[in-house]
Amino acid sequence: MEFCPKCGSIMKPEKKGNNVYLVCPKCGYKEKMKSKKFKIEEKSKEEENIFEIKNLDLLPKTHKLCPKCGNHEAYYWVKQTRSMDEPPTTFFKCTKCGYIWREY
Ligand SMILES: [Zn+2]
Ligand SMILES: [Zn+2]
Questions:
Q1: What is the largest CA-CA distance in the chain?
Q2: What are the boundaries of each domain within the chain?
Q3: Residue 53: which pLDDT band, with cuts at 50, 70 and 90?
Q4: Ligand 1 geometric centre to CA of 52 (Å)
Q5: What is the third-level CATH fold of 47-103?
Q6: What integer pLDDT is reported at residue 65 of this predicted model?
Q7: pLDDT tens per residue across span 7-43
Q8: Which ligand number lies closest to the CA of residue 9?
Q9: Whole-angstrom distance, CA of residue 83 vs CA of residue 88
């Protein structure tokens, strides 16, 4: 949530074309929303999807080097991305440290 630097009211996002602005409904102050923020939001949403997998014991294991701790065993699962033209993404989760990474 963003607050107006002028009057302290809660600012509302407003989309115009490809840009998103934060607009203060009280005093009309307007500022361009940083695209960075949106990227972070998207990423966290994607990560939520990854953590949907709860029954890790049901996942198959494979011989895979964990890039974080060097462990040689990881759970893996495949997820089809939004677009059917793209190849599915394979996710790995280290059995030792729990680190999750992906391969295309
Ligand atoms: Zn304001
Ligand atoms: Zn690991």
A1: 59
A2: 1-33, 47-103
A3: low
A4: 39
A5: N-terminal domain of TfIIb (2.20.25)
A6: 96
A7: 999 999 988 888 889 999 999 999 988 655 555 455 5
A8: 1
A9: 9
> If DSSP states are collapsed to H, E and C, what string results for the chain?
CCECCCCCCECEEEEECCEEEEECCCCCCEEECCHHHHHHHHHHHHHHHHCCCCCHHHCCEEECCCCCCCCCEEEEEEECCCCCCCCCEEEEEECCCCCEEEEC
**Token code pair at residue 32:** 């361009």
pTM for this model (two decimals): 0.47
pLDDT at 78: 87
Q: How many whole angstroms from its chain centre is CA 53?
A: 15
Catalytic residue among 2, 31, 42, 86: 86
